[in-house]
């Protein structure tokens, strides 16, 4: 099968090319996710946590567990399965990421109506609408980036994108601290102003995104024809063959079924669940029981350190072409943090444990997504597989909304205990998955060596090559990233 040759670029030219792509794509999608994440109710909604401090529960009479129930029944987690599974094949087939993703952001302007809710049913109604809209944003961008960056440049970019959520934890605490002084302006309480100002910023970013985003490398007019070919062909040979097989469009159903029946999708979904429940749970035992202003400010340092650690781990993960050691290390950090917080330690020690909880949970998140994205071949299989993984993981977000109950303050033994349990499950599931990857890679190495020892030719007929390509990541030439 003839394929276009890859243009030759010097290291300096290649570095400039990727820098141009980064500057075109990363700032806008990072801002999109930051604004989305600052709103999320059951998905690490730090702003809502601060809004809870700024009078939301008092004015709307959210007694008992009404606040938690409103979040779990109306957040994006309730709509993850349809939202994610519909969004990713759409992106994979229609190639309109520059319309789909900014369109989600326009829909998120509904959050402005959060500033005017006055009753519990109104709160739930608005959260339902927001949940429907925002369910496809994260998986859409995570998949979108796989179409632009090679597998060992992917995680750092995903970390830049995901890091905006970590920064949202720091920024929203500062923002809520400042907006708290607007309490009473215009006849609105401080928590109303939080959602109004967020909604205005969301609309602005959505329209900018529609102007500057590009669907995929092959349609990027800001690149020269040679640069477009280089970016497309820069994908690893096995991944490129999987994605570009000429019969692929006729095997969409085959790829979707392959995603649902692939053991690694479900294995990594377990790992993802073990990361997400503790990650979301950290929001619900923050702030720390001090005054509103002090609590908001105390949430800032852990998220700043988490962002730095996230980017550092992701950089070396790409550089060393390894994923699992960094995921495992991050999970261990989170485990130590939760163990500290479940004890009756002094508040200062628990604050240190909170640093570890946030750093470990946020750092492991993009590693798990990247590992599965690297190991799924075929455009549609990768899209659906990532959707399943993220959806399964986010079930932990729905659970986290209700395991940190007000009656368990201040130690939250139930919530911390479940977080420790899920992290431990992940620390067992990840090595089993990696050992299986290594065993399959070794089997394929031996099969290729055996073929060579028998004098078989490396070349195959075009029909045989196409059929081999349509095995996607199960092709003999494919090697799993570990």
Automatic annotation (TrEMBL):
<feature type="domain" description="Major facilitator superfamily (MFS) profile">
    <location>
        <begin position="25"/>
        <end position="444"/>
    </location>
</feature>
<feature type="transmembrane region" description="Helical">
    <location>
        <begin position="124"/>
        <end position="146"/>
    </location>
</feature>
<dbReference type="GO" id="GO:0016020">
    <property type="term" value="C:membrane"/>
</dbReference>
<feature type="transmembrane region" description="Helical">
    <location>
        <begin position="325"/>
        <end position="343"/>
    </location>
</feature>
<feature type="transmembrane region" description="Helical">
    <location>
        <begin position="158"/>
        <end position="179"/>
    </location>
</feature>
<feature type="transmembrane region" description="Helical">
    <location>
        <begin position="191"/>
        <end position="214"/>
    </location>
</feature>
<feature type="transmembrane region" description="Helical">
    <location>
        <begin position="417"/>
        <end position="437"/>
    </location>
</feature>
<dbReference type="Pfam" id="PF07690">
    <property type="entry name" value="MFS_1"/>
</dbReference>
<keyword id="KW-0813">Transport</keyword>
<keyword id="KW-0812">Transmembrane</keyword>
<dbReference type="InterPro" id="IPR036259">
    <property type="entry name" value="MFS_trans_sf"/>
</dbReference>
<feature type="transmembrane region" description="Helical">
    <location>
        <begin position="349"/>
        <end position="372"/>
    </location>
</feature>
<feature type="transmembrane region" description="Helical">
    <location>
        <begin position="293"/>
        <end position="313"/>
    </location>
</feature>
<dbReference type="InterPro" id="IPR020846">
    <property type="entry name" value="MFS_dom"/>
</dbReference>
<keyword id="KW-0472">Membrane</keyword>
<dbReference type="GO" id="GO:0022857">
    <property type="term" value="F:transmembrane transporter activity"/>
</dbReference>
<keyword id="KW-1133">Transmembrane helix</keyword>
<feature type="transmembrane region" description="Helical">
    <location>
        <begin position="265"/>
        <end position="287"/>
    </location>
</feature>
<dbReference type="InterPro" id="IPR011701">
    <property type="entry name" value="MFS"/>
</dbReference>
<protein>
    <recommendedName>
        <fullName>Major facilitator superfamily (MFS) profile domain-containing protein</fullName>
    </recommendedName>
</protein>
């Amino acid at each position: 099968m003839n394929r276009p040759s890859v243009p030759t670029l010097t290291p300096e030219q290649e570095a400039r090319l990727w820098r141009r792509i980064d500057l075109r794509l990363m700032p806008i999608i990072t801002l999109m996710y930051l604004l989305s994440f600052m709103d999320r109710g059951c998905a690490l909604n730090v702003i809502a946590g601060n809004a809870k401090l700024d009078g939301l529960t008092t004015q709307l009479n959210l007694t008992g567990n009404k606040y938690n129930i409103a979040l779990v029944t109306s957040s994006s987690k309730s709509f993850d399965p349809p939202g994610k599974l519909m969004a990713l094949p759409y992106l994979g087939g229609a190639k309109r990421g520059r319309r789909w993703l900014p369109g989600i952001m326009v829909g998120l302007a509904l959050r402005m109506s959060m500033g005017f809710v006055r009753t519990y049913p109104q709160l739930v109604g608005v959260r339902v609408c927001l949940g429907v809209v925002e369910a496809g944003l994260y998986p859409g961008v995570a998949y979108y980036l796989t179409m632009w960056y090679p597998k060992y440049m992917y995680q750092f970019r995903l970390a830049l994108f995901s890091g905006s959520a970590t920064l949202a934890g720091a920024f929203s605490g500062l923002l809520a601290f400042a907006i708290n002084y607007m309490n009473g302006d215009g006849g609105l309480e401080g928590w109303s102003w939080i959602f109004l100002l967020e909604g205005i910023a969301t609309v602005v970013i959505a329209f900018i995104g529609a102007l500057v985003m590009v669907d995929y490398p092959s349609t990027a007019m800001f690149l020269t024809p040679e640069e477009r070919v280089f970016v497309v062909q820069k994908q690893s040979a096995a991944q490129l063959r999987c994605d570009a097989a000429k019969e692929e469009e006729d095997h969409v159903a085959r790829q979707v079924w392959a995603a649902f029946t692939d053991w690694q999708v479900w294995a990594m979904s377990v790992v993802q669940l073990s990361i997400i429940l503790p990650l979301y749970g950290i929001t619900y035992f923050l702030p720390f029981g001090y005054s509103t202003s002090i609590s908001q400010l105390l949430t800032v340092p852990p998220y700043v350190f988490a962002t730095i650690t996230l980017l550092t781990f992701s950089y070396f993960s790409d550089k060393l072409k390894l994923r699992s050691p960094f995921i495992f290390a991050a999970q261990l950090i989170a485990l130590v943090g939760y163990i500290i917080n479940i004890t009756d330690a002094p508040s200062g020690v628990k604050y240190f444990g909170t640093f570890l909880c946030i750093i470990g949970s946020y750092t492991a998140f993009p590693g798990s997504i990247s590992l599965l994205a690297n190991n799924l071949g075929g455009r549609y299989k990768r899209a659906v597989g990532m959707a399943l993984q993220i959806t399964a993981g986010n079930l932990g977000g729905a659970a986290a909304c209700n395991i940190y109950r007000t009656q368990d303050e201040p130690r939250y033994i139930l919530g911390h205990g479940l977080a420790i349990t899920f992290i431990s499950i992940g620390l067992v599931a990840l090595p089993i998955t990696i050992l299986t990857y290594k065993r399959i890679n070794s089997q394929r190495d031996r099969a290729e060596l055996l073929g060579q020892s028998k004098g078989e030719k490396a070349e195959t007929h075009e029909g045989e090559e196409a059929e081999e390509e349509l095995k996607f990541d199960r092709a003999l030439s494919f090697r799993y990233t570990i």
